[in-house]
Write a structure and sequence with these properties.
CATH architecture: Roll
Structural class: alpha+beta
CATH class: Alpha Beta
Shape: globular
Largest sheet: 6 strands, antiparallel
Number of strands: 6
CATH topology: Thiol Ester Dehydrase, Chain A
Number of domains: 1
CATH superfamily: Hotdog Thioesterase
Helix content: 10-25%
Number of helices: 2
Distance between the termini: 23 Å
Mean pLDDT: 93
Radius of gyration: 16 Å
């Protein structure tokens, strides 16, 4: 199990909560929290490339995610999504993300996910490109 205490997040994005994000219990619906994690992932990778990415032709796809919900998120909470790639394999990258209240520091939920290299033309997994590998290693200060 990945210990969050040892994770240094180098990327964060503020979440703009919308009225329809709130469910009948008065908190952000769990399914909506997954969209917040997606928002964080997109901005993480676009910040590495320093450009908007056309994901329809991207060579990375999501193959697994799991979410632990720790505390409810309520309207008025100042939420940010923090993202980190913590491992690069031959054909995959592993990410950890948190939704955190900026005011209290409380972690509201944690997402662990795996993306793999993917060739949309052949519909097959591929090795993580040197471009992605180098961008991630530089940003996360990994050793090659």
């Amino acid at each position: 199990m990945l210990e969050l205490d040892n994770i240094e997040f180098n990327h964060s994005e503020k979440i703009q909560m919308r009225f329809n994000d709130i469910d009948v219990l008065g908190h952000v619906n769990n399914a909506i929290q997954i969209t917040y994690f997606d928002y964080g992932k997109v901005h993480y990778f676009e910040s590495l490339k320093k450009q908007i990415i056309d994901w329809s032709g991207s060579d990375l796809v999501m193959v697994h995610f799991e979410v632990d919900f720790m505390e409810p998120i309520f309207r008025g909470n100042n939420i940010e999504v923090k993202t980190k790639v913590y491992e690069i394999g031959n054909k995959s990258v592993k990410l950890v993300q948190i939704l955190q209240d900026e005011t209290t520091g409380h972690i509201k939920s944690v997402c662990r996910s795996v993306m793999c290299g993917f060739d949309a033309k052949t519909n097959e997994s591929i090795i993580i490109s040197d471009e992605w590998r180098n961008l991630i290693q530089k940003f996360e200060k990994f050793r090659p």
